[in-house]
Design goal:
Layout (H helix, E strand, L loop, with lengths): L17 H21 L14 H17 L3 H21 L3 H19 L2
Length: 117
């Protein structure tokens, strides 16, 4: 019996790994919180300072994203901005925005400690 050949579908591009997707979300969160810390928003001070370590995490994640998905700098920045917008939308829709941010930040802070001591 002959098995008919299947038409090959064009590649859709690499799918991000769960770990990379998580890192992108964390990088966006760190950027948001670092910005609030820099503006003196009292509620953001409950997190460790993120200006330096958060920026380093963001840079490393951006480089990994560019390599993994073949993005140029502009496309990577657009991807990060889309994640920032998504977080802001989710936070605004949450019944308790502070609890939403706390829950989102907990695994991110663990990831930060593991990758940027």
């Amino acid at each position: 019996m002959t098995v008919p050949a299947l038409a090959a579908s064009p590649p859709a591009g690499p799918a991000p790994t769960v770990e990379l997707s998580t890192a992108v979300r964390c990088a966006a969160l760190f950027g948001l919180i670092a910005g609030e810390q820099a503006r003196g928003v009292a509620d953001a001070q409950r997190f460790p300072p993120l200006a330096q370590r958060g920026r380093e995490f963001f840079v490393r994640t951006g480089a990994r994203l560019m390599d993994a998905e073949g993005l140029d700098r502009a496309a990577m920045q657009a991807r990060m901005q889309a994640e920032v917008t998504r977080i802001q939308t989710e936070s605004a829709a949450a019944p308790d925005a502070r609890a939403f941010v706390d829950a989102a930040m907990q695994p991110c802070l663990t990831l930060l400690d593991a990758s940027v001591p």
